[in-house]
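Appendix B. Raw example, untouched.
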Amino acid sequence: MPRDLSLDPLWSIAVEVQFYLVWPFVILLTPSPKARLIIFQALLATVFITRIVYALGFPDGRGSIYYNTFFRMDGFLMGSMLCQFHELHKKIACKHLIPALTFLAVILVVVPIATHEPGLADPFNLYFGFTLLAFFFTLLLHLALQPKNYLPFLKNKFLRLCGRISYCLYLVHFPILSALAPRFDTLGSHTWPGHQGFFYCLTVLSTLLLSFAISLFSYRYFESYFLRLKT
């Protein structure tokens, strides 16, 4: 867990780098998609069970699970499994996935709220939520890759723009929020006491607008240059 919470988004970048360094060797050393599927399923079960055992055995250390590379391998493993399914040309009945996605979305929204323990130590996330969230986005990715347009909302221009600038948007939103929140809180307590909710909404709106502006500038004048080098 970072000491400076404004750097909080960088934890996932660090985990991604570890994945990119290790996973090519995993693929190189496994002979076929079938063998990889078996290995990835075994690893997924190991991660799932180990995380639950750790959360039950060390309740004081539950917050560290969120940032731990091994305990957050669900997403990488499920994405890798989906890749192997495609390599093997295995058919997944897409028409049944929309109800499954809807059900998962409801579970992921409603159940954590019902646990009454939000944050990194939320027991639902520690036991099941991280895995279900990874499964949700794996199904979403599978549908998005199909020739048939199962998810027409993904063609929305605004969503496509958000996708292009998402890397910078992810990196800068929390530092901006961390910088603006105490200032708006102080401003609210001095100028309009008793209306902190209004200043909270103002903080979020200002964070979104500033994050979008910085991300658009970054994509246009910085990231796009390096992206062109790939072609």
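End of appendix B.
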